[in-house]
Design a protein that fits this description.
Elements lengths: L1 H36 L8 E3 H17 L19 E6 L4 E4 H7 L1 H8 L3 E9 L6 E8 L3
Parallel strand pairs: 2-5
Antiparallel strand pairs: 1-4, 2-3, 4-5
Helix pairs in contact: 2-4
């Protein structure tokens, strides 16, 4: 009788452990998908500068809420979990700027000069552990 009770207890413990791991994985996956959908961007998609302004503001806000550390140049440091970095390559002067530089210069100026200009998402990278967006690169396509 004891052997049957112990066997039953072990089976219940294994089933509960597997269920917990599966539910935890499902929750984390859905959470990452929900957070990624806020940026609503996919590779090779073209957007206007006004929408890029919104994406940059969301990334800065997300990094601030997640208390992502900055390096000595003011750029957010990749924490391998939930940090987001964005680079924008301009064809006007063939220079790549990070989102922090544009944000600190004033998004109003960026919106004024590049609000109707098209940008293409050339690269999207994800954190390996969480599946959340890690890095986005945009390239200017029109002048």
């Amino acid at each position: 009788m004891k052997k049957i009770a112990i066997f039953f207890f072990i089976v219940v413990a294994i089933v509960c452990t597997v269920a917990y791991v599966y539910l935890n994985y499902t929750y984390n996956y859905r959470n990452a998908q929900r957070e990624n959908s806020e940026f609503n961007i996919s590779k090779d998609e073209e957007i206007e500068g006004s929408e890029l302004t919104t994406i940059i503001n969301k990334a800065i806000d997300t990094n601030t809420k997640n208390e992502i550390q900055k390096d000595n140049k003011g750029k957010y440091i990749d924490n391998r979990n939930n940090s987001i970095n964005i680079d924008i390559k301009f064809i006007d002067n063939d220079v790549t700027y990070n989102m922090e530089m544009l944000y600190n210069s004033g998004m109003q100026n960026f919106l004024y000069y590049y609000g109707n200009i098209k940008f293409k998402c050339s690269d999207v990278q994800y954190h390996k552990e969480t599946g959340k967006i890690k890095y986005i690169e945009f390239e200017q396509t029109t002048t």
